[in-house]
Design a protein that fits this description.
2 copies of one chain form a homodimer. Helices cover about 65% and strands about 5% of the residues of chain A. Chain A is mainly α. A 3-stranded mixed β-sheet of chain A has the order 1-3-2, sandwiched between helices. The mean pLDDT of chain A is about 95.
């Protein structure tokens, strides 16, 4: 295969992968946000069939031949073409490990598992979901073994979501977080917590929807490029820089849930929306890894969104949309109330200080499920025990326990550590950003363009052209050091609680 | 090809067509209800690529070979297999007329035309939409010429939406409607119209959403099988009996708009939801023609929904959901107010009596566009002139004129007559139903199960297993006679307006 033939083949496979990816992604997004409950089985059949086509495309000998022709002679090649071939190779290598039938059955399984989880969570019925999780764990264990039988299965999966991640790297990372933060958590636990009437008011869903519009505008997100859907467990997906979807969930008695969901998912969206136009409809568009993606979402959610200056900008919006509910509220009280730190049950609602403990629970459980030490049937008991151990809370039911997250139903085993890594990446990025620009003056005035401009320049516009390590280096110019994250949390909560 | 090989091939092609159909249908539904405005071009590329795959599937020699093997020797074959092969042959015959490139480009065009129309309508900017319509008309004219150059292009298109329909059949049909109904319209025009405060009240969107839930329940539609989306121009789509989507549009100052949209689309939904489970995931599921489909939607919307007994059942729901807006309203006033007959601008809001005139305008224009007598640029002028001629109203702008419907942007040229045919079919079906069951007693009590049961037995459960003519005969047991429709309208409006 000549270089030109190989590049032409690359274009062709890329176009097909993007089209099938958009079709399957839209079916899944629609399934999670709009489709009727009984539609999952039919959608699963369609996803299985389309998955089979993708499988055929990736495992075709000409695809591998084209990749090899490009990567074996890189001299004079455009850097983008090399990176496209490398990314395609990653997909090919992974998919080639799984026979077509098994791959198709897994697509169908995921569609049905998603629907089963959607029904099981509100019904608090772990037993109804467990058989799906069983098969998902089995599939992932098998995949990992095929990919590299010499490594523990969980290490193989971790590397899928964050290149280079492994238990050897994450064990000490989490240990460092735990030992450093445990005394702060303990000290904070002894302090009185702030409170304010706005936390206990009722916020009708339609008023929250209007508030979301204001929040998206504050974040500088153009709704012509980014829609907002509603679902059980908020997530973001994107099909290029003119078609991003965030989702949220409205709780009438809990206004900050959707507030911080929207900012978190909005952070993901800004990454996707910020990719350079020239990467559109190529494999290079989108986020470069889950860790870097979460660094962006949690950057906006916490480092910006739960900062004192941002609360100053947020207050007038809240008062505009919810005048009755926020009567008498001032920025300092708002700031203190969105930073109440205390051990709790739900990861997505956790404060920054205890957040990593929630991730650790999932990390431990995934480790044990993948090694075979923990049976799927025993997950609820183990979950509750770890919440007792790491957070000191009693889990009253599986709905607020091991059924709370959608990730496992979507096959995402090994994803959770990305949240903790991303949080730590973000703290280090903020340090670098503060050296370059005036972050807080504009944020206090509701102007996030400097923040998004800086992240856009360092990270967003490059899409997947940079590896995760390169994207991190582009932003921070130094090796990863979790000390920044720990230092940030200790300072912030020390000041908040007068430690 | 042996019979067994042919049947196996039929299964295989059918499964793929259904999967691609669901993927493309979901992309389109999502595009119309949830996707951000700028996403159309990217979605168009994906639809074009998937359309190319479908084209390849339908034009493959083995597909035609399988169809021929099945249809050339029907002895001892299951009736369902024959019908599946016949339906597949219709698609193959149509698609084979268009080269792959042109077919793919048309899929992309439709995606972009939909978005262009969505933007042009509120902006009242016909010029921005016209280039798309131009290309859509061109494509359809070319398609018709290739299909049967001996017939006028419009006849070929009419037959696509309603087998057997032609100008030779529709000209006298519309003429009969016009001459019979014109005197009634004229006489009604001289009578005073009812009025009531509830028509002028404000209905917040979130309250209308809750009302939709009640309305769907009243219609006996299980939301686990049927979702409600929101869009500019309401429509229904379905992917089997467990995945139907209706859509509506809420106007705060116009509660009956969404009310009757939901009942209309709910009628479409009941047809799709009523298909026999054994037809699921085959080409036999869904409606057998657009005329029969519209007979069902307009049956619920008008024959049932605008009847006196239904208004009795509707009143308590309205009062529950909108107590302030409906204060003092009684069933008789409601009945009279939802049957105000007067020439108006918007087809979907038209009363039953003048409705066919709206369809005639579109029929005339399509006829002239397809014959080449009317240039796309001249459509607004011709539209306004016909509204003056048939309805005696002045069209103030294109938004309320030729841009009001989404059909042309979706490539549906020849569809509109189905609405008038469907209305007339429905009136004749009601006659047959009234002979078999007590229609009105249960309806007045809010029980539509008898109506839906009768239609389900005669029409819905058969899906596409029956041809449109067979479905009509199954319900009516007599040849089609528009006299029933004219008689129904004359009696109803005669009584309402004391003629």
């Amino acid at each position: 295969m000549t270089r030109n033939e190989a590049l032409k083949k690359l274009d062709e496979v890329e176009a097909k992968l993007l089209a099938y990816g958009q079709a399957m992604g839209t079916l899944t997004y629609d399934g999670d946000t709009a489709a009727p409950a009984n539609s999952a089985a039919g959608r699963g059949e369609t996803l299985a069939l389309l998955g089979g086509v993708v499988h055929g495309l990736l495992t075709a000998p000409e695809t591998r031949e084209a990749i090899e022709a490009i990567l074996s002679d890189r001299e004079g090649l455009d850097r983008r073409d090399i990176r496209r071939a490398e990314l395609l190779k990653e997909s090919v290598d992974e998919v080639c490990l799984v026979p077509a039938d098994e791959y198709m059955a897994y697509q169908q399984l995921l569609a049905e598992a998603g629907a089963a989880w959607h029904a099981a969570k509100p019904a608090n019925d772990y037993a109804a979901f467990a058989p799906y999780l069983e098969r998902i764990v089995e599939y992932n264990r098998r995949l990992a073994r095929r990919k590299d039988a010499s490594k523990p299965a969980y290490d193989v999966l971790l590397d899928l979501y964050e290149k280079g991640a492994s238990m050897a790297m994450l064990d000490p990372f989490f240990e460092q977080l735990r030992t450093s933060l445990a005394p702060v958590i303990l000290a904070v636990g002894e302090r009185p917590k702030p409170d304010a009437p706005f936390l206990h008011a009722v916020y009708p869903v339609h008023e929250q929807r209007a508030f979301t519009d204001r929040l998206m505008a504050l974040m500088g997100i153009d709704r012509a490029d980014c829609a907002v859907g509603e679902t059980e467990h908020p997530f973001t997906c994107g099909f290029g820089r003119h078609d991003v979807r965030i989702t949220t969930h409205y709780h009438e008695d809990h206004v900050t849930y959707s507030l911080y969901s929207v900012i978190h998912e909005g952070g993901h969206a800004l990454y996707e929306l910020g990719c350079d136009e020239s990467l559109e409809r190529t494999l290079l568009t989108g986020g470069t890894s889950m860790g870097i993606h979460e660094s962006q979402s949690r950057f906006y959610e916490n480092l910006i969104g739960r900062s004192r200056p941002f609360c100053e900008a947020l207050l007038p919006l809240l008062r505009d949309c919810f005048p009755a509910q926020t009567r008498g509220l001032d920025a300092e009280t708002l700031y203190r109330c969105v930073n109440i730190a205390e051990p709790s049950l739900i990861r997505t609602e956790a404060d920054e200080l205890t957040y990593a403990m929630h991730v650790m629970v999932r990390y431990e459980l995934e480790k044990r499920m993948l090694s075979g030490d923990l049976k799927v049937a025993d997950v609820p008991g183990a979950w509750n025990e770890l919440y007792r151990k790491y957070l000191g809370v009693e889990v009253p039911d599986d709905r607020r326990g091991c059924l709370q997250d959608s990730h496992w139903s979507g096959g995402l085993l090994g994803y959770f550590p990305s949240y903790a890594l991303g949080s730590a990446y973000g703290a280090q990025m903020l340090r670098a950003m503060e050296r370059d620009i005036d972050v807080w003056g504009p944020v206090a005035r509701g102007d996030l363009s400097g923040v998004t401009g800086w992240l856009g320049e360092k990270i967003h516009r490059h899409g997947r052209l940079l590896t995760p390590a390169e994207a991190f280096a582009s932003a921070c110019g130094a090796p990863f050091d979790p000390g920044h994250y720990i230092g940030y949390l200790s300072r912030k909560y020390g000041e908040l609680y007068g430690l």
